Amino acid sequence: MSDLNKLGLASARDALRKGETTAVELTQACLTAIDGADALNAFVHKTPEIALERAAAADARLQAGDAPAMCGLPIGIKDLFCTRGVPSQAGSRILQGFLPEYESTVSQNLADAGAVMLGKLNMDEFAMGSSNETSTYGNAISPWRRGNDAAELTPGGSSGGSAAAVAADLCLAATGTDTGGSIRQPAAFTGTVGIKPTYGRCSRWGIVAFASSLDQAGPMTKSVRDAAIMLGAMCGHDPKDSTSADLAVPDFEAMLSGDIKGKKIGIPREYRMDGMPGEIEKLWADGADMLKDAGAEIVDISLPHTKYALPAYYVIAPAEASSNLARYDGVRYGHRATLAHGDGITEMYEKTRAEGFGHEVQRRVMVGTYVLSAGFYDAYYNRARRVRTLIKKDFEDVFATGVDAILTPATPSAAFGLGEMTDADPVQMYLNDVFTVTVNLAGLPGISVPAGLDKQGLPLGLQLIGRPWEEGDLLNTAHALENAAGFVAKPGKWW
Amino acid sequence: MSIDQNTAARVAKLARIKVEQDALPALADEFNTILGFIEQLNEVDVDGVEPMTSVTPQRLKRRVDEVTDGNQQAKILSNAPDAREGFFAVPKVVE
């Protein structure tokens, strides 16, 4: 078989089980593709020895007829996941040289399911960003271009390396994490599928923390079926994460009937933003028509507090980040600044953090420090947490009327050029998450499905939001949308 | 609420991040932009609304209070920038 790296998880799995290829061949095809794609800067730590060793072990299990769900399937791991003995820097200089002595639960679950780790993927520093431009490794670059224009585009962020790698067929799938849209926005920008499950579905243990009440891991894949397979392998109860849900994990793939007859799909009027490009509006309307044609009932709904989601997020996420990132003090791991004669421990902290954290991370840590400081805690932090309660209630009210899923655009635009937002104020960049951030605040599952191309030939995605714990039903609706949209475009290879 | 340079310096100090004096005006400006955006939250009527503590209603799991882990001194120190004689080493803290 040729072009093995272009397969998805389901087709590769089926080929492996029929003996049409081997895990080692699949892995070698991906390693070759990775070595030829340094221009994308997606893989920032390559682990070919680990990959080939795991692939050989997977082939032995396949031979023995003892193959688990992801046996022999080569994937990339976002740099935010701690992987034993392999650099895990969260895209930050402050974790330079850090070699975890332990493995994150999600990456361990994937390894236990037989998946083959190819290496670690680029990302925004500490997952703070929407364009992968805050990484200590430099920008990840999208394989997509605007026609023949050679301008470099963002693959989105924070899981930019994951999105670029999957879209460019460097791996069959990748892990991502999503605090405000960091799986769904890059998936939309690169024509891939990304699902953020319900808060508590995936263990956060061993994933470098950004905002603990919002962070969730999820798969980034080439199809909805692949997302169902990989999500099943990633999630499950973990006693090491006190917020991990002790719930059975259904067979998500078995729930992909594509039948959505009688399902009620809500269209939230508050997501119709001023200045929304006509192409996005049309994509959204087309998506609703597709679901209607597949037998769903389309209903207008209202989520009245939508407008306040981003401001609430930009209080809560920095507040939690300022607390989580206090651990980077130059004492236990990572970078420590060179000290001048006479410097004490305070100078060590301050110089280490100034050198180790990039600009955006420093800014968010300081904003978080401010909103939690004496005198402002109630006005900012507690108010934002009250607004968060209202945002979640908006969704509960809608689901109580029998709505099964909510359809929205995934992003307010197609991918933008790297550097194009440099001069904009930070709030302009934050607006990328306007459609996705509500889902994190409410703890719900959300999936981005590629649904079309804009006039410049760049992918656009639609988002479906589901009821808590009903990822299976959500994936099935996404599967119906995927079938109807028939998105097959791939970026032309220039790298 | 407007943040001046003194407040920006105080926040940087609280966050234990060294910010040079000449970078403070730009930092204060950025804070003001972000806080201006956050000010929208004041439009929301939150009377009687509880601040969210857990997005998924759940009772935190409990376990028996016993030692389940330990004896990993070498592993714990393996990533330290400076470790000596089984301890993390830091600049002098007490005169």
From TrEMBL, chain A:
Organism: Sedimentitalea nanhaiensis
Name of the protein this chain belongs to: Glutamyl-tRNA(Gln) amidotransferase subunit A
GO biological process: translation
GO function term, MF aspect, one: transferase activity
InterPro entries: Amidase, Amidase_CS, Amidase_dom, AS_sf, GatA
PANTHER family: GLUTAMYL-TRNA(GLN) AMIDOTRANSFERASE SUBUNIT A (PTHR11895:SF151), TRANSAMIDASE (PTHR11895)
Positions of the Amidase domain: 25-475
Record-stated family: Belongs to the amidase family. GatA subfamily.
Keywords from the named record: ATP-binding, Ligase, Nucleotide-binding, Protein biosynthesis, Transferase
Function: Allows the formation of correctly charged Gln-tRNA(Gln) through the transamidation of misacylated Glu-tRNA(Gln) in organisms which lack glutaminyl-tRNA synthetase. The reaction takes place in the presence of glutamine and ATP through an activated gamma-phospho-Glu-tRNA(Gln).
TrEMBL record, chain B:
Superkingdom of the organism of origin: Bacteria
The reaction(s) this protein catalyses: L-aspartyl-tRNA(Asn) + L-glutamine + ATP + H2O = L-asparaginyl-tRNA(Asn) + L-glutamate + ADP + phosphate + 2 H(+); L-glutamyl-tRNA(Gln) + L-glutamine + ATP + H2O = L-glutaminyl-tRNA(Gln) + L-glutamate + ADP + phosphate + H(+)
Enzyme class: ligase
Keywords of this entry: ATP-binding, Ligase, Nucleotide-binding, Protein biosynthesis, Transferase
Gene3D superfamilies in the cross-refs: Glu-tRNAGln amidotransferase C subunit, N-terminal domain (1.10.20.60)
Signal peptide: none
GO biological process: one example: regulation of translational fidelity
One MF annotation (Gene Ontology) recorded for this entry: asparaginyl-tRNA synthase (glutamine-hydrolyzing) activity
Known EC number: 6.3.5.-
Pfam families: GatC (PF02686)
HAMAP family: GatC (MF_00122)
Subunit: Heterotrimer of A, B and C subunits.
Cross-referenced PANTHER family: GLUTAMYL-TRNA(GLN) AMIDOTRANSFERASE SUBUNIT C, MITOCHONDRIAL
Known function: Allows the formation of correctly charged Asn-tRNA(Asn) or Gln-tRNA(Gln) through the transamidation of misacylated Asp-tRNA(Asn) or Glu-tRNA(Gln) in organisms which lack either or both of asparaginyl-tRNA or glutaminyl-tRNA synthetases. The reaction takes place in the presence of glutamine and ATP through an activated phospho-Asp-tRNA(Asn) or phospho-Glu-tRNA(Gln).
Record-stated family: Belongs to the GatC family.
Protein name: Aspartyl/glutamyl-tRNA(Asn/Gln) amidotransferase subunit C
